[in-house]
Amino acid sequence: MTMQPFSRRALLGQLGAGAVATGGATAAFAQQAAPAAAPIAGRIFNVVEAGADPTGRRDSSGAFQRGIAELAPNGGTIYIPSGRYRIERTLVWENRQNARAPGLTFRGDAPHSTVLVHAAAGPLLRVRGVRATPPVNTSFFWGGGIFDLSIQGNFERPDQHGIEVLGWYYGEIHNCHFTGLGGDGIRAVVDLRTNANPDFTSSTLFVRGVWLERLGGWGFIDLSDVQGAPAWSWDRCIFSMCGKGGALVRSGGQSFTKSTFFLCGWRSEHEAPGRSGYGLYFDGNLTGSSQQFVEGCEFDTNLTAHVGARYLSASSFLNNRFIFSNRSGGQRPFPPVAVEIGSGDAHAAVRAIQLRQSFFRQDLPGSVVAFDFANHANVRDVEIGGSVFNAAPRGSITRYRGADPNGRGAAYGYVVQPGASE
Fold first, then answer.
1. Which domains, from first to last, does the chain contain?
2. What is the distance between the alpha carbons of residues 285 and 76, in angstroms, rounded to a whole number?
3. 3-state SS class at 69
4. Three-state secondary-structure class, residue 21
5. What is the DSSP secondary-structure string of 205-256?
6. Per residue in 110-153, pLDDT tens?
7. What's the whole-model pTM score?
8. How far from the centroid of its chain's Cα atoms is residue 324's Cα?
9. pLDDT-based confidence at 377, cuts 50/70/90?
């Protein structure tokens, strides 16, 4: 469905004068004329009408912040028409009450039409759905989202990020583009100073059709270490040229479906890679990083490994494709390892995971490894089956490295099937 640009005048005519309140006089009239609050869907704040500059020559952060302040108590839509908007300070959407609050919707016309140009340090948008001073309830922002726009940086600052979320439940990020940021695309945080239980400041989001590319940091990073981003859903997303890696997951129950992890470890085709770069990395702790689901994803030319698991349990990887190639012009296949089980150090712990119907394709000559059991002390009950291996001419794929240390593989509860060659 093609979305038509919002017209405040047309909207007033369709919904009635009491349905939209975007300014002081209009708000006063609406309160007198309407016996009850307008429905959330009817409250629309057009940033251009509020003074934002769609040419990008002037700072538009003031107009955006006014829209957030006006709509935040009752919810609504901040509409951002086509244009380039320069944002020179972090926009803050904060719940100052100790109660649940409705989500805001930030909506552009399309990711290549509505572009927010980040020109400051920190995140462009900081979302905090829980007040900063204790005591707090599990209040959160509920619903709302970010739709049909781009957040664009200029690589100048490693502390320049896209969005940072805390205390936002069941919001959506859909059809958006994060690019050119010197730091991370999407960051999930908790505040243990507010409450020592991370459940009180965690977030759960649905991320669909989002492209995170040419970033200096991670496409997504879970900074909590303690269940700050449980049950996030990633569907048909692209993590491309994220300098530190595609996604760093430390909370449980995340799902990645039909998504792509490509050239992570590089941030540009014209620059040398960083020191490391995983497509998808699981960390945190053994019980926390559990119930993960990765299905139908493609991993191609990531720097260190396609998937790394330092802490991971009770999780499944189904029907994924792993490609060893070099899209930056070299002749050495990357990564050297597809799936690294027990990454990092001897403290790594991986328990009760399965990897089924994996396809491995090697495009360039050389030696690569499909499954690497990097550390064994705390790794057990790993099931691998139904894999297909397609080596390049003058290439070789070691299917399982370190799976049977000193003849003790069976003691670790490994079930490893040989797999087929194409």
1. 11-38 (no CATH), 107-421 (2.160.20)
2. 38
3. helix
4. coil
5. EEEES-EEEEESSEEEEE--SSSSSTT-EEES-EEEEESSEEEEE-SSS-EE
6. 999 999 999 999 999 999 999 988 888 888 999 999 999 999 99
7. 0.88
8. 24
9. confident
